[in-house]
Each structure stands twice: as structure tokens, then as C-alpha cells.
Amino acid sequence: MAAQGRAAVRAPLCALLCLALAAAARAKPSPVKVLSDGMWRELLQDEWMVEFYAPWCPACESLQPEWEKFAEWGEDLGVNVAKVDVTEQPGLSGRFIITALPTIYHCKDGEFRRYQGARTKAAFINFISDEEWKSIEPVSSWFGPSSFLMSSMSALFKLSMWIRYGHGYLTETLGIPVWGSYAVFGLATLFLGMVLGLMMVFLADCICPSKRHRPPQLQPQPRKQGPESAHLLKNRYEEQEADEGDISDDETERKEGSKRDSSPSGVRQRPVPSAAPLEKS
Predict the structure, then answer these.
(1) C-alpha to C-alpha distance for 263 and 269, rounded to whole angstroms
(2) Which residues contact 110 (CB under 8 A, 6 or more apart)?
(3) For the whole model, what pTM was predicted?
(4) 97 closest CA partner among 42, 36, 147, 48
(5) Among 57, 107, 206, 208, which one carries the catalytic annotation?
(6) Which among 52, 90, 141, 265 could bridge 157 via Cys, Cβ 3.0 to 4.6 Å?
């Protein structure tokens, strides 16, 4: 009886001890940092290993234990280990153009490289400690996450998220039917298009105004010439006319001489002596 009583007491104590250990393990903070859209600038400094995942992705769930173990070595390796939920942070996922899950990027001093090695703790540690990332070509600056193109893509991803939230608010909170939500977004799109079109026309008219609104251009008036300059111009004009007259006279003389040489009457003929008269006997 005494042994049975002790066993009955030990069983609940063991269960409580297991629950306490499990609670302590859960209460321990995760070494993996969670990034948001507002923490984008932090990736441009120091060294990072970032995982892009989604809660509904089975491959992402299988990677989490190895990623947690690798994060425990982050402080010793001098690397920040982080993760990004693509369903909640569209700005970051838009910058990196995430098309497959999970996707891992190595970031160091503003250079970004995609990790494509084995997804184990040992492979992650060797990738950082042996500097294997140097053998990978970084993403081009034109298509890098910090470029203007990817910044614009991030803004589009954020806009799509806001539209989704707005659609959910209209249909779920306000009880508007789905077609009504689509109609609201359609009218809003038309209104914004009209406003942007008017702004573009206004800017174009300010930069390149039409001819009707252009101020009249004043034509420069000719300067008045003094008597001395008028006299000089007159002398030059007379000299030019005299030179032209001399040239025309020379040309006419040359033409007449050439005509005389070419005509048959101009050929000189020798005079033939006439016969002497015969004396009468």
C-alpha cells in the first residue's frame, strides 16, 4: 500500500516537472531575429543570414529546427540570423522578389547573395566560417534590393497588401458584398486616374506652354546708321559694281575673240601674185 501511494504521488510530480521544463523551453527567447519592412536599413550594415518563409509552407516548417540551431551560433560567428514572414512583410519580399519558399539570402555591407547550399546547421556554419559566400556572384546593382527598381516593386507589394486589407475590411467588418467591394475599388481607381491625368496635363502645360499663352517675342529693331557709315557702305557698293563691270567687259572680249578665231572668214589667205602683161611685138 505504501509503495502504491508513493507511485501515485510521483506520477503527478513527474508530469508537473515535464510541464515546467516545457514552459521554460518555450519561454526562452529565440535567437532568430524577426525582421519587418521598417527594419530594411539594418540589412545594409554588418553581416546577415535571412530566411524568407510562410507559415503555411511545409518546407519552411522542416527548416525551422536547423535554422534555430544555426542562430545559436550567430553570436560566435559574428552574423545576424533572421527570418521574414512574406505574408506579413510584403515590402521586404518585394525587394528580394521571392518566388520560392524557403529562400535564404546572405547580406554583407550592402551586397546580397542567394544561398543555394544544403539546409543544415553544419552547412550554414561552414558557409559563414569558411567565407564560402565569396565564391557566389552578388546580385547586380540594377536589380539589387536597394536599387530604385526594387524599391518601386516593394511599394507595389505594399499597395497590394493594403488593397487586400481594405477588401477584407469592407467585406468582413462592414458586411459589404464582394461585388460592392470591387465596385468601390473600381471607382477609386478611375478617380485616381483622372486626378493623375489632370496633374500631368497641368505640369506639361507649365513646362511647355502652348503658342496661345506664350508671351509675344520682341523683334530686334535695326540700328540707325550714322552718315559716315552710310557713306562707307555707299563707296563699297560702288566699288563692287565697278569690279563686276570690269569682269563682265573682260568676259565679253574673250567671247568675241574666241568667235573670231573659230569663224572661217578669220583664216588668213596668202595673196597670189598676178601674171605680168605680155609685151606686143
Answers:
(1) 14
(2) 44, 146
(3) 0.54
(4) 147
(5) 57
(6) 90
